[in-house]
């Protein structure tokens, strides 16, 4: 892997200058090389063969580029040089009959990440106004393979490609110090952190450089490098550990990725010795302004701060009688002159709820805390709202808070790591789930979607962007389960284009990651992952009831695990029925948070979708779904079918496993063994639970314990 010199030390100001004209034309920059100790994911050498076997001209004029763009320009040249060195092509001048031309040209395109492609006269031509766009164009050619050069995928008409939003982000929940409960990476199921080890930032950041390359090839351009649950040691990333953030940022920069840090509201006290963190206190305001000055002096292209405040024990402005807008805007003022962003997470709720109280509803919290302050947040504040009102469940309603803040920049937050979907021990592809959520029309058919709101195409026209919790660790396969790489890849591709077909993205990932696989082998992987989200839903929590997992670990079936806890995650199952009454008429009133028509659709049992019936209503087990089945029979049938689907996937895998590299085959086989055992537990425990609650037998007479 190409490791910039900055990986070994912090760059000085002189190091960060733009390249000279001679350096712009230098193609001898150290290039990416294979590391046999780490799986190449979707960038194996073979994926570059169609490009690297051709004559390539790279034209990037000498210009007063930003530091970010200047380093990306060097990356483009290094990628091309490595590809042709490996696959027999050549780097040529533009006048020397190239097959491929990668050109930065002056034009009116205001998006520095946009690029155009066209094929004519035997030449595939990529143009961009900025080296960042050229880098994305290069990876576009890699994705297309031979079709990029034979005229079958790119025609003579110029096609423009541009991201739907400028903010396409991954949040790492990595801890510098190993947490006694959550470990090195909170909700991390792929080994340790690629950034930290033994309480310090790793000396060798080669792995981070490889990661940056993978992210750029999928479309990600922002990364937060530490956990939102910021501990005392992590707070020091704004202080004496700032040089280590500089080192990480230096590794991300060559691939066009900006670095962010999660900060603690308590930082003025932890680092500055202040006795208050009141956002109206002049000393607090000055402390944050000084901290921002230090960070941007060290990292001129720093992205901004991510903060979780007044949530699950994290400190915030509430203790001073201030609002979230007060807190966010104080931080926004501190970073504004640097062009920085404040990502203020809306995951705020009462985590000490009384389970006896059916009116206090965790699902209502984000709307209640943030919607009243719409229009009061500063322009450089992005309110980051989870896609659903609870917590990244396999099936929950979309968050009404996302649609309730047209005068605020809102980012939709997702989770690539599968906290509630099998811990990357189960083969579960989330592209279909995300696509369904992103395309949800908040005001009815044909109206603005979740993706429209996040990208500034909804009411108010305020672009926030997309953010998601990363699923990467120092595991050799990056994501624990090799097939979980598909989720990381799909996240980047869907943030670039939320309207893209998630199944086409899946096939794209399969083709890149396993380039030598037969058509039959590719079909096996496709069949395993295509409807795996729906399969997981079948054998876990039914009909939008949510959770039913073991507390704390969030893995495995425990139907009553959270039922009497203070976390507000109940299903209220009794002998007569199950579900949470969130109606205005008789329940918590949550349905009123939605705009028409959804408020009335969800309010009525006659119109609520089957898959969300228990999310919005408490119903008898004999309630007949629109499918024609009763709730109880649906539970039995889906849990038996879910296990059968997993067994079919395993049988298909066993027939094809020999075609895969031995390390991949071994890991996938191992994970399938775990998934089979877990799925069997889910089937038997959930079915037994409902049989004993309801007393209603399975119509098919299958064995339930």
From TrEMBL:
GO terms for biological process: xylan catabolic process. Pfam families: Glyco_hydro_67C (PF07477), Glyco_hydro_67M (PF07488). InterPro entries: A-glucoronidase_C_sf (IPR037054), GH (IPR017853), Glyco_hydro_67_C (IPR011099), Glyco_hydro_67_cat (IPR011100), Hex-like_dom2 (IPR029018). Residues 479-702 form the Glycosyl hydrolase family 67 C-terminal domain. This is Alpha-glucuronidase. Residues 9-33 are annotated as: Disordered. SUPFAM superfamilies: (Trans)glycosidases, beta-N-acetylhexosaminidase-like domain. One of its GO terms (cellular component) is extracellular region. GO terms for molecular function: alpha-glucuronidase activity; xylan alpha-1,2-glucuronosidase activity. Keywords: Hydrolase. Residues 14-26 have a biased composition (Basic and acidic residues). Residues 160-478 form the Glycosyl hydrolase family 67 catalytic domain. The keyword Hydrolase applies.
